[in-house]
Amino acid sequence: MPSRSDLSDTIRLTGLTATGHHGVFDFEKREGQPFRVDAELTLDFRAAGRSDELQDTVSYVEIAELIEAAITGEPFDLIEALADHLAREILRSDARLLAAEITVHKPQAPLPQSFQDVSVTARRTRADLSPRSVGEDARTSEDAEASAGVGAPEGAATTDAEVRAVLALGSNLGDSTATLASAVTSLRSRAGLRVLAASPLARTRPVGGPPDQPDFLNQVIEVATTKSPQELLALTQQVEAEHHRARGAENGEIHWGPRTLDIDIITYGSARVSTPALQIPHPRAAQRGFVLVPWTWMDPQATLGGVFVAELAAQAADSATVELAEEHLNTGVRP
Question: Under a CB-based contact definition with an 8 Å cutoff, are residues 37 and 71 in contact?
Answer without folding.
Answer: yes
